[in-house]
Amino acid sequence: MRASTRVIWTVSVLMLAAVSEAIFPLPFLPFLPGFHNDVHGNNDALEVSKPVATGGNAGGKRRSGGAQEAQTNWPGKWELFLENSGVSAMHAGLMPLINQVQFYDATIWRISKIKLPPGVPCHVVNAKTNKIDCWAHSVLVDVNTGALKPLSLATDTWCSSGGLTVNGTMVSTGGYGGGANTARYLAACPDCGWHEYPQALAAKRWYSTQATLPDGKFFIIGGRDAMNYEYIPEEGQNNKKLYDSLLLKQTDDPEENNLYPFVWLNTDGNLFIFANNRSILLSPKTNQVIKEFPQLPGGSRNYPGSGSSALLPIHLYMKNPKVIPAEVLVCGGTKHDAYYRASKKIFEPALQDCARIRINSAKPRWKIETMPTPRVMSDTVLLPNGDILLVNGGKRGCSGWGYGKDPNFAPTLYKPRGARGKRFRVLAATNIPRMYHSVAIAIPDGKVLVAGSNTNDGYQYNVEFPTELRVEKFSPPYLDPALATLRPKIATSPKQIRYGNNFNVKVNLNQKDVTKQNLKLHMLAPSFTTHSISMNMRMLLLGIGGVNPAGAGSFEVQTIAPPSGNVAPPGYYLLFAVYKGVPSTGEWIQIV
Q1: Cα separation values, 46 from 39, 206, 312, 363, 463, Å
Q2: How does pLDDT run across 376-433, given as a tens digit for each residue?
Q3: Is the Cβ–Cβ distance between 92 and 452 less than 8 Å?
Q4: d(Cα 389, Cα 378) in Å, to the nearest integer?
Q5: What is the assigned CATH class of domain 484-591?
Q6: Residue 92: beta bridge partners?
Q7: Which part of the chain is the Glyoxal oxidase N-terminal domain (predicted)?
Q8: pTM
Q9: Residues facing 577 on adjacent strands
């Protein structure tokens, strides 16, 4: 087709699609000439950087007028927090206010390392044979003391999804077998237990992704043999309505590679959904696909390819632009046939790239960087200062029972606002392999809680990678003891805020050069983490109106709440004061 003919044909098609958008949904766009962009196609949609630095200080001055960060070559520190977490941490979520992390595994195994407490009835597995299960498959772990509280679960949570309601209740969805249609609720209180509704979902959700919407309700998509999505009903109700997902149907290859899709709420209220190597923007109001993004070349990024992803911190101001920028990061993964080859005992190297895309750009394109090492099954953690920690996983193979090899012991720090080519830094290594079914989650003291790893069908110990029950904490470089005097402390802050309202935070900090250029306020929405996906993880860099002295060693920071639920869904966040890149301990704050 000559270029002139191609242009005429394309313009005609676009005009027709604009007149009748509903007639030409997602499948139509790929047929436009040159639409799918890969390394052999339209390179305008792809930008590849040179190999990156793998050590030393990657800090320096932040771009976009950012303040000079405190300098440190400290590589971080690992500490053993718990010898026995009770259950293997396949899933993790931080509960607001009570500062406890919920770990749960799969009830199908009928065993763990902690019994249900006295007075809690055992789960009846089979009423005809009177088979019972008295092991706990869910525990609350106090992130400060390590105290464990076992909880009873009846439905199977194996490979499920989750998120937090506006009032801080954890909603766990899907799972295996009889648990696949279930919605479970656990309130954030010391004496609360699970409430389970086995018929809440219209489709079976095994390996699905749950996302919080601007009004605080939930969207859930995918799962094995579930090429659709739905909206989670109110507690106690059952949903019957499904919406087909053409994206999932078109990205389902022989190894699947589109389970646990990445879903991020865009700042315009629409949903960015990434599956396998393709992504779209979906309106939860109209259920129409608004945009399809260029393909990300190189391989598969979703389960069992199992790369990881983050929505980069959202920069807000006292007065925000009409379109608030949003950028998505996708790191690691595997070649498309990695699962098949691993089944033949051929463990291919994982992907070694990180790619980011500005999803509100008029011409979005992937910008690709090279990580210091390959990564699959890793966790991506937003740190309180806005940096990102890539931790856990392996360097070869993929997700699955025994399908991952060569543990990646050393986490990598990624500074998203650093200079290209200097954003990565390899940090101190652990000595515990964290492979398939590992988790990592940021906690209020600025550390990262790391747990799990079970590549076995059940609790097994005399194997290459035993079922792992030890829990570690990792202290990122900003917790360098030499920077202790730079660490601020939030003295007072509101417990609740409303969209667009001004509020003040009092910060204790014994430093002289404190200005609105170097003292910031960040809000972090805690994630639900499993299978290398951190659902609903979100960070807001608040606009600062002023920083004024408020007595000896104290400052009053003037700021403004996020403008809407599109930018920040209602609910609980951890509020951090950050001075020259060094964060305070987080305080809970609720958007209502």
Answers
A1: 8, 33, 19, 11, 42
A2: 999 999 999 999 999 999 999 999 999 999 999 999 999 999 999 999 999 999 999 9
A3: yes
A4: 10
A5: mainly beta
A6: 103, 529
A7: 90-478
A8: 0.90
A9: 521
